[in-house]
Every structure is written in structure tokens, then in C-alpha cells.
Amino acid sequence: MEDTPIVKLLWKLSPPVMLALLIQSVYNIVDSYFVSRYSEAGLTALSIIFPIQLLMTALATGTGTGINILISRMDGTGETKSQTDFVKSGLFLGLLNYLIFAFLGLLFIKSYYSVSSDQTLVQEQGIQYAQIVFVGSFGLFIESNCTKILQAKGNMVTPMIAQVTGAVINVIFDPILIFGMFGMPELGVAGAAIATIAGQIVAMMITFAAVCQIYHFQGKVQVQNCIQIYRAGIPSIIMQSLYTLYIAGLNLMLKLFTEDAVTVLGIYYKLQTFFFIPLMGLQQVILPIISFNYGAGRKERVRDTLKYSTLFSCGIMFVAVVIFMAIPERLLSIFSDRDSIIHIGCPALRIISGSFIPAGLVMMFTVYFQGIDRGKASIFITVLRQIVLLVPLAWIFHYAGLRYVWFTFVVTELIATIASLILYKKNKASRASQRSR
């Protein structure tokens, strides 16, 4: 973290994290693929529940990020004695988050589907899927915290192994349980949910065992530590939660045109996963690097980390733009070959891809601000993107027609990029002023 050249460090640490996250994203994608072969209503049901699953992931990974930041900073300053207390407090928060989310999810899921869809079959299948996922989500919440703890200690391989194992279990059992193969009952969307939570629980067991080997759980759960974890992780929680809220808002807006547009948006988010997830992996890698070197006073390494991560993100997003522009119909046909989906989806994918490169830049800046203890700047950019700009602009553009709604993504990311650069320059000028005093 302290002496290895930044480029070499990124090349070493990024691939395992990116692969682990890509595999983790397979859960929803594989569910959607097999469910789409089972029922069109089921595919729509999973598109509607997708924002809620993102909200669960936001709370889980955001809390884990808080633990990650604190452990990395303590390593940077040489403080290691109190880490066990933070680890134990973090795992307690994982269990607490699960209980709260499961309770609220089971309480409000019927109301959520009644607002999101007018089709009875979509509502029934969606509620069935969601209830199972909520009850079994303890695997997701605890595994996320364990993964972040291991990553803070430089262990990127064990989380990758856990995610690969969980994803393989999900891929194997999805068709078996959905279609009733090898003597198993045909469970439909419920089978997809069971396969998902089974994979998550296995991944949790692997990462939890690895954490136990490091810390042996001699620490104590302390309220003050829990508060510090949430304080450090709140920018990530807010960033990902707002992402969820704006998707839910877009779903309701697109429903004004047709539920096929809602399905297209759901398919888009599954497709862009293959490119945005690597960026999220890059975020997870640079966060402890920035936090460690910021704590150690190595400011030049902090700047280099931002520089090279933005270059990497632009490269990944350029590839994404080319693919989305060139073969949108083939991408859409993975999940649906209905003419209405292809007709709406092809221009949507091409237009939205124009936002990819600026989005990649913004994602790196938000983590940079978080790593240098400028959480307010990180939150500001996130709120600007996903609340102040995206949903209101979509509402304005929808008066011009469905096609123009997709331009919301491009305009939003361009403005957010400009705002990020302004905040970066202001922070740089502020630090220069402090040094000159």
C-alpha cells in the first residue's frame, strides 16, 4: 500500500475484486435470464424488484465500506490494537441491517408491487420472489462486511473465491429449481430466489471463516465504533441508495408510456453491469489505497491513484460505448426477442452509452473525496447526479417523448463531471493555501 508503484498495485489488486463483483452480479442476471425463459411476467417482476435489491446491496456494502476505511486508516497510522473491536461491531451491524431490512421488506413489499405494476401475475410472482430473498438476505449482509474487512487487509483472493463459489451454486440450481429438473419440483421465480440466497449464504460462510482466522473475535461490540462505521460508510450508503431511488423513480415514469419501457430499463441495468461492476471493483481497490496513504501523509500517491484510476475507467467505458453502439439488438435479445422491447431498447442503449465515459470519471472522484475524508463533497456529487438532476430532468424530457427520456443520463453525467472537477480544484487550492500559512 505504501511503497508499491500505483499502476502495479492497481493491476495486482483490481482483477480479483472486479471478477468477484462481476460474479456477484451474476446472481440477478442469471435469475433474470432463466426467469425470462419461464415467464415474461417473471422478467418484469424481477425488473421491478431490482431497485430494492440494489438498496439491500447499498446498505450491506456501504456498512462494509465504513469498516474498510477505518481499518485501512488504522493500518496507515500504525494503530492495530482496536481493530478487533471495529470488526466485531461491524459484523453486529451486518446482522442488525438484515433484521431491519427483512422486517420492513416483508411489511411493505405488497404495497410496492401494487404501485409498480397493474398486472396481477407480475405482482404475485414478484412478491413471491422478494419474500424469499428478504428472509435469506443475512448471507448478503454479513458476507459484504466480511469481504470489506478482508480487502482492507489486502486479501482480495478469498472474497473472489467466495463469490465464484456462490455464483456457481446459483447458476447450477437456478434452472433446476425454476423448471423442476432432476426430480425437483417446478418452483418458478421462487426457485430463482432460493438459488440466489443459497449462493449468498455459502459465500458468507467462506469469508466469515477467513475473518475468524485473522481476528479470533476477542473484541467487543461498542456503540461508538458502530457510529464511526456508519459515519465513514454513509457516503457509500447514500450513493448507492440514491441510485436505487432514481431507478424506482424512472420505473414509475416509464410506466406512463408502457411497461415494456420498464422492462427495457431493467435489461439495460443488467447489461451495463458487465462494465460498471469493474469500475465499482476499481473503486473498492482505490479506496483503501487512498485512505492508507492519506493517513500516512503520502499525498503524491493519493494523487497518482486518482490519475491512474480515471485513465483505467475511461478505457473500460470506451469499450462499453463501442459495444452498446454496435450491437444493441443482440444485447437485448439475450433477455427478450419481443419486437416492442427491441424497438424501444435499441435507441435507448445507444443514447445512454453516451454517458458512460463521464460516469466513469465521476465514480472515481466520489471515492477519492471519500478516501481523503471529504465525505460531504462525495455526497454532494451523488445527490446532484441522482436526485437533483436525473429524475427531474427525466420528468422534463418525458414531455418530448420516450426517446428523449434516455438523454437524461447523458446530460446528468456531463454536469456531474464538471461539478467533480470544480470541487477537486477547490480542494487542491484549499490545501495549497493551508500549506503556505
UniProtKB/TrEMBL annotation:
<keyword id="KW-0472">Membrane</keyword>
<keyword id="KW-0812">Transmembrane</keyword>
<dbReference type="GO" id="GO:0005886">
    <property type="term" value="C:plasma membrane"/>
</dbReference>
<dbReference type="InterPro" id="IPR050222">
    <property type="entry name" value="MATE_MdtK"/>
</dbReference>
<dbReference type="Pfam" id="PF01554">
    <property type="entry name" value="MatE"/>
</dbReference>
<keyword id="KW-0813">Transport</keyword>
<dbReference type="InterPro" id="IPR048279">
    <property type="entry name" value="MdtK-like"/>
</dbReference>
<feature type="transmembrane region" description="Helical">
    <location>
        <begin position="379"/>
        <end position="398"/>
    </location>
</feature>
<feature type="transmembrane region" description="Helical">
    <location>
        <begin position="129"/>
        <end position="150"/>
    </location>
</feature>
<feature type="transmembrane region" description="Helical">
    <location>
        <begin position="347"/>
        <end position="367"/>
    </location>
</feature>
<comment type="similarity">
    <text>Belongs to the multi antimicrobial extrusion (MATE) (TC 2.A.66.1) family.</text>
</comment>
<dbReference type="GO" id="GO:0015297">
    <property type="term" value="F:antiporter activity"/>
</dbReference>
<dbReference type="GO" id="GO:0042910">
    <property type="term" value="F:xenobiotic transmembrane transporter activity"/>
</dbReference>
<feature type="transmembrane region" description="Helical">
    <location>
        <begin position="308"/>
        <end position="327"/>
    </location>
</feature>
<feature type="transmembrane region" description="Helical">
    <location>
        <begin position="9"/>
        <end position="30"/>
    </location>
</feature>
<feature type="transmembrane region" description="Helical">
    <location>
        <begin position="274"/>
        <end position="296"/>
    </location>
</feature>
<keyword id="KW-1003">Cell membrane</keyword>
<comment type="function">
    <text>Multidrug efflux pump.</text>
</comment>
<feature type="transmembrane region" description="Helical">
    <location>
        <begin position="188"/>
        <end position="211"/>
    </location>
</feature>
<feature type="transmembrane region" description="Helical">
    <location>
        <begin position="404"/>
        <end position="424"/>
    </location>
</feature>
<dbReference type="InterPro" id="IPR002528">
    <property type="entry name" value="MATE_fam"/>
</dbReference>
<keyword id="KW-1133">Transmembrane helix</keyword>
<feature type="transmembrane region" description="Helical">
    <location>
        <begin position="232"/>
        <end position="254"/>
    </location>
</feature>
<feature type="transmembrane region" description="Helical">
    <location>
        <begin position="50"/>
        <end position="71"/>
    </location>
</feature>
<dbReference type="GO" id="GO:0006811">
    <property type="term" value="P:monoatomic ion transport"/>
</dbReference>
<keyword id="KW-0406">Ion transport</keyword>
<feature type="transmembrane region" description="Helical">
    <location>
        <begin position="162"/>
        <end position="182"/>
    </location>
</feature>
<keyword id="KW-0050">Antiport</keyword>
<protein>
    <recommendedName>
        <fullName>Probable multidrug resistance protein NorM</fullName>
    </recommendedName>
</protein>
<feature type="transmembrane region" description="Helical">
    <location>
        <begin position="91"/>
        <end position="109"/>
    </location>
</feature>
